[in-house]
Each structure stands twice: as C-alpha cells, then as structure tokens.
Amino acid sequence: MSTTIPNATDQNPLTGLDQWDDFVEGRYREGKSQEEFRQYDKAAQPGVAEFYRLNHENQTVAFVLEKEKEYYSLQKGMKSIWEAAEFLNTMVDDSDPDTDLTQIEHLLQTSEAIRRDGHPRWMVLAGFLHDLGKCLCLYGEPQWAVVGDTFPVGCAWSPDIVYHEYFANNPDRNVPEYQTKYGIYEPNCGLDKLHMSFSHDGYIAEVMKPYLNIEALSMLRYHSFYPWHKHGAYDYLANEQDRAMLPWVLKFNQYDLYSKGHTKPDVRALKPYYDDLFAEFLPASLAW
Length: 288
Ligand SMILES: [Fe+2]
Ligand SMILES: [Fe+2]
Known about the structure:
Distance between the termini: 21 Å
Helix content: 40-55%
Order of helices and strands: EHHHHEHEHHHHHHHE
Number of strands: 4
Bound molecules: fe (ii) ion
Structural class: mainly alpha
Strand content: under 5%
Shape: globular
Largest sheet: 2 strands, parallel
C-alpha cells in the first residue's frame, strides 16, 4: 500500500518532498549567489516559493509549541528502524514515481557515502536516520511543517533565511517580544534551548535522543538549519558546545546534499550490515 503525497493544494505546493532537497542543493552550487538562485527559482519553480510562503507565514511560536507537545512525547507507537523506514517508504513521490528512488534508497545513499569515506559508525547511522522524521507527512502534517530550512521562532528572523520577505505575514510579527534579537531567549543560551520551526529534523532528534552521541544528535537536529550552518546566523544564541558541533554538522551536510544519484543501493545486500549497526546503538523497538 502506498500513500501519495498530496500536491496541488494550498497546503502542499511542492510536487514532492524531494523538490525541496533539490532546491537546496541547487542553491548552494558553486557559482550562483543566493540572490541569483532565488530569482531564477521564483520563476522556474513557483511551487518552491509558495512552499516558503506557507512555511514562513505559519511557523509561529504557538504552532511550534503545539506540535512539540503533540510529537515530542513520542506517542505514535513503537517501531524498529526497519519498520519506520518501511513506513516512510509507503510515501510515494508522485512527481516521478517510476524513476525516483524510494525513501529507503535515499537514506542508504547518504549513509553509504558516509561509510565509503571511512567515517565512524555512529555517523553512518546518523546518515541512515536523518530523514526518517519525514513520516510526519504520513501523520497528516503539511509539507511546510515537515521540510524546508529551519530557524528559531520567538526571536527576530535572520535576513539569511531564504525568502525572508514572507515573514511579513507571520502573526508573530505583531508580538514585540518575539521581534528583538534575542526574543524569548538568553544570549548564547545554546541551540538546544531554542524552539525551532517544526520539521522532520527536530522530531527525529527527539526520537533518537536517548541513544546517540551529541555529534550525531546535532547532525539530526540541525541538518536543515542552513541559516546557522551555512550562513553563520544566530551565533549569538549558540554556545561553545554548539560551535564545537558545527564542523560535524557541516561534514554531514556534504553527504545530505551531494550523495544523491540514480544508482539504486541494493537494500537486501546491505541489510546485514545495517542490522548490526542498529543493534549496536539502538534497542530493537523505539518510541516514535
Ligand atoms: Fe532532511
Ligand atoms: Fe536528507
């Protein structure tokens, strides 16, 4: 049974979740400034611009707190990693279902590229896990609450957030406390104190919190926090530990952005390696 991601509704302007990944990859390709890419993109991919409009208008403090309450208590049932991956696989990208890789194949491409380069096993694991939180779509969340660049809510939006102008219609614009540099936070309080815009990143980090080291958790939690890891924004909310984690997040980002290809990983052949890897770090079944 498969679930097709709804599109062409005002809630889901992307033709598929991968469209956002492709957009980000193109945005950071060499030789194109952010502004150039954005101008190009607005015309070429109106769905992406519309996606960011919905994201920036709806990711408010109230929305984020509500979603954290709903999902961070992990009440969606127990699943093994393979079960979670199979569940995610029921989501078919209807932009091109015949040629696109399945969700599991995408995860394996990332983790296998990390493994090939000889990185530690916990990082290979982080590669496999990092997008499992996209199952939020299957729980009924709209795309703008699942993918996209993340940013803290409750403080001034950095100009480094792409399509920044769409924050003009975010209701938090009218809450003076949320519009100051530090907002509801203390200077250099540490990124883990922030309420980040709701997405698959924060959700998977919550699921994995009891089991992984801080490096792997930072990769999961901040992999879409482009304003921070690519542009250096929000450093005034980060602490020394976050700065120590930044090189790991950046290292991970290379694999997230550029490991995509059209060679299908052989899931069956790789399974024994991943069975061992999951058993090394994780219980047989986890709360989601
Ligand atoms: Fe992701
Ligand atoms: Fe990814």
